[in-house]
Amino acid sequence: GSTFKAFVIASALERQVITESYECDAEKGSMHIGHNVVHDSHPHGLLSTREILQVSSNICAAKVGQKLGRDRLVETFRDFGFGERFGLGLPGEGKGAIPFPKAEIALATQSFGQGISATALQVAAGYAALANDGVLMKPYLVSKVVDSDGVVLLENKPTVVRRVFSAKSARTVVSMLESVVEQGGTAPKARMDEYSVAGKTGTAQKVD
Questions:
Q1: What is the three-class DSSP state of 59?
Q2: Whether residue 154 has pLDDT greater than 70
Q3: What is the pTM assigned to this prediction?
């Protein structure tokens, strides 16, 4: 769902397809793509890059996806680790599905997180990469295995998978995600007085 919008915006900023000052026409909540119609949950007019995430506009995410193009959109998702297993060493780890968006409507819907699938672990790792200045780390569940004699049989340590984005792009998007939990955002109840919070709401649709 809409949690993917943060990755799309980050990619567009990194590739200089848009800037922080970019303005998008959200078309009052309804946009036609061929015979299909993309809707926003609430009608909006011009939205800044920050506001696209703050109000979670499907229409503007789709327009940013169009600017990125199919190849770069899929490349972004792959760079974050979607569509592949991290290799946790446990059975049943899913890899999700990132089909290539051949149709215009598929390009639009994938830009706001529909028509693709991901595991909760992949989404968590993706957001951790944004929080980690654009560096994706390999998740692990077991830190250490020690036998009865105290011999370490297995030890996992933080391992870098790849740098996905520059620190500047990652920090910019994290700053934008802080507006999501402020008044006017989609998750004001997640705001905390003691800590700065960055967040993103998302509505998932189950793949048939």
A1: helix
A2: yes
A3: 0.93
